[in-house]
Amino acid sequence: MAQEFGTVNNASAKSREERETTLRKQYEAVFYDPADIVKKAKLAKERIENYLEEIDAILGNATEMTTITVSY
User: Fold this and answer.
1) Pairs from 39-46 (Cβ < 8 Å, separation ≥ 24)
2) Partner of 2 at 20 to 30 A CA spacing, among 31, 54, 62, 71?
3) What is the pLDDT of residue 28?
């Protein structure tokens, strides 16, 4: 803040407050709950597995071949 506004004589209070708020948000500590992370990881794993199963089913139907034997 001092580097940005130290040499400015006519900086508005609003611009200083906005810059201070931006800096606080950037350097704010974020704490994560380990149990919540595990739950979200399991949900992500399930979604990926379901997605892969769906792709496998689509590809299985698209590439499925039927063999017909004709006898005389």
Assistant:
1) none
2) 31
3) 92
Confidence of residue 9 (pLDDT cuts 50, 70, 90): low
How wide is the angle at C-alpha 23 spanned by C-alphas 18 and 29, nearest 5°? Answer: 135
Spatial separation of the C-alpha atoms in residues 16 and 72, rounded to whole Å: 92
pLDDT digits (tens, 9 = 90+) for 46-63: 999 999 999 988 887 766
